[in-house]
Amino acid sequence: MSFTDLAGLGGIGFVLVAIVVNAGYIRGGLPLPNSGQSLDEVTAALASVGDALKRPSVLAPATWLFLTVFASGLLSVLWHGDAGPGAWALVGFAGVLMQNATFTVVEALRFGLASAAARDRGSVTGLWSLSNVLFGFNQVFLSAALIGFTAAGTNAGLIAGWQTWLGYASAALLFVSAAASPYNTGGTNKIARVGLIGWLGWATWIVAYGISLLGR
């Protein structure tokens, strides 16, 4: 199996595992950023979350590994060391690395929030605000990944026209959602659907890109 095949499988695997992880959080009652719940509701849910937080989080590192392999595969195909249009792939790769680093902190904050809710509820407010804003700001890195790899892939003829439009549209939605993050410290996000639609577009874009890498 070639490296590009592994990269394609990595992209598809990232989306599948991310869906499983988030489904596990929702089923376990974990309050997610921008959920619109009150601070009392968030604190109560976090205090009782227990192993419902630990079990899905075991899979979280796999998503970062899969996404890194996917992005590395795209970079190897799209950029050939020059300053041409393929160099946009560097922007995409940087966006993926930054999203991985940022979301590692978001995941770790969830454990800090659960511990604070159970032992020192006074500190939940600050940690919850930090988690919400960081989660929101992270979307700009997804936007960078979409823009970079879409621009490079379009120039290389690797992706179809609909995927080009999907990539740019999803990037715009995610950027708008990221820019609104300072107004969402309390977890109530009036444009949360914008970010959700952007994320669903990002996930679809990855699966389509992953399929295009298979068999290259």
What's the short story on this structure?
Keywords: Membrane, Transmembrane, Transmembrane helix. The chain has 216 residues and is mainly α.
Structure keywords:
76% helix, elongated
**Beta content:** under 5%
- Give the helix level as a range of percent: over 70%
Following the backbone from N to C, one meets helices and strands in this order, namely HHHHHHHHH
| Separation, N- and C-terminal Cα atoms | 10 Å
Could you report the average pLDDT, rounded to the nearest whole number? Answer: 89
Low-confidence stretches: none
| Overall domain count | 1
- Overall morphology: elongated
Rg computed from alpha carbons, rounded to a whole number of angstroms: 18 Å
Characterize the biggest β-sheet: none
Strand-pairing-aware structural class? mainly alpha
What's the number of helices? 9
> How many DSSP E strands?
0
